[in-house]
Design brief:
Largest sheet: none
CATH topology: Na+/H+ antiporter like fold
CATH architecture: Up-down Bundle
Number of domains: 1
Distance between the termini: 65 Å
Order of helices and strands: HHHHHHHHHHHHH
Number of helices: 13
Length: 330
């Protein structure tokens, strides 16, 4: 048993991609079973919120990520415990996050906060399709100047992965919903979501055992930077919705959609960015930097996932209380 576990850890790079693709496929099948064509038609009536969400997701957040990455590049080596390799990992991870659409958890948090759930679902669904083209472009623009050496983003592979393991299962899930009764849809969604969470746990366990999740290179300042990036994205989006005169329920849906990223997709894209044979033929310095970028992406995605749940839940509950007080006074 111990020998098998040790073998799993040592060969984790070979299993990671299969685990990630299966995890995302299950998740999107479950999400698709909750959507209908009507959800996409709703975007026509919610075009204003959709437009603001697009601007925040595709323009504001990537620009904010680029500024944050620039500041990280100015931090002296060793400050706050952040090593040079750790800085490369953090910046690459932030680039990966900035290129991600919102996740399905944003719909639940919007519902809890009494926000515009229809807008939230529409944003999640439409940005999932848009990310087929937007994600590789944003990622390549941000990462290409951050990782030294001969590292390059395979945009075609990322597009192929999104099409095969994100969009295709989403459409199949929608077809399942169309052809089955609500009772079967609920059971199917629960099974798919739980299966994806089990696989996520396996990925985290494997990464820990393989030594991929090391906190040492990032010191105390690494998590602070990731948290500040999330807080900045939240308030930039909030200010954008305020400037556009959006009502509070719509604003909450857009803000949570931008802050709660699709972490499962990020883990899938990570395997396309850093395939298991990527280090073959690389010199020692290039290999070291690529490993630092890969491990930093994993650290940032998992840490930001936990942060976004806390931040999104807090923002959602505050909004619910605020609207409750407003209802009492009217």
């Amino acid at each position: 048993m111990l020998d098998q576990l040790s073998s799993f850890f040592s060969d984790f790079n070979q299993y990671e991609r299969v685990l990630s693709t299966t995890m995302v496929t299950f998740s999107m099948l479950g999400m698709g079973a909750t959507l209908t064509v009507r959800d996409f038609v709703n975007t026509l009536t919610a075009w204003r919120g959709l437009a603001v969400g697009f601007v925040a997701q595709l323009i504001l957040v990537p620009i904010w990520a680029g500024l944050t990455m620039f500041v990280i590049g100015m931090i002296p080596d060793g400050f706050g415990g952040l090593t040079a390799a750790g800085a490369i990992g953090i910046t690459t991870g932030l680039a990966l996050l900035a290129a991600m659409p919102g996740g399905s958890l944003s719909n639940l948090l919007t519902f809890i906060g009494n926000g515009n759930v229809a807008l939230s679902v529409s944003l999640t669904a439409v940005t999932t399709f848009v990310c087929l083209f937007a994600t590789p472009l944003v990622l390549a623009a941000l990462v290409s100047v951050q990782v030294p050496g001969s590292f390059a983003i395979d945009k075609l592979q990322i597009m192929l992965d999104i099409a095969l393991f994100l969009i295709a299962p989403l459409l199949l899930g929608m077809l399942f919903r169309r052809l089955t009764h609500s009772k079967h849809q609920i059971v199917f969604t629960k099974i798919m979501v739980r299966a994806s969470l089990v696989l996520l746990s396996v990925i985290i366990f494997g990464s820990l055992g393989a030594g991929r999740l090391q906190f040492g290179p990032y010191g105390w300042i690494g998590p602070v930077i990731v948290a500040l990036f999330g807080i900045g994205a939240l308030w930039l989006t909030r200010l954008c919705t305020f400037a556009c005169g959006m009502i509070d329920r719509d604003s909450l849906a857009v803000v949570i959609e931008v802050v709660v990223k699709n972490g499962l997709l990020a883990l899938l894209v990570l395997t396309a960015m850093f395939p298991s044979d990527m280090l073959v033929g690389k010199n020692e310095e290039d290999a070291r930097l690529i490993v630092a970028a890969r491990d930093g992406c994993m650290f940032v995605v998992l840490f930001f996932g936990a942060f976004s749940i806390v931040a999104g839940s807090s923002f959602s509950l505050r909004g619910r209380k605020r609207r409750g007080r407003q209802a009492e006074t009217t």
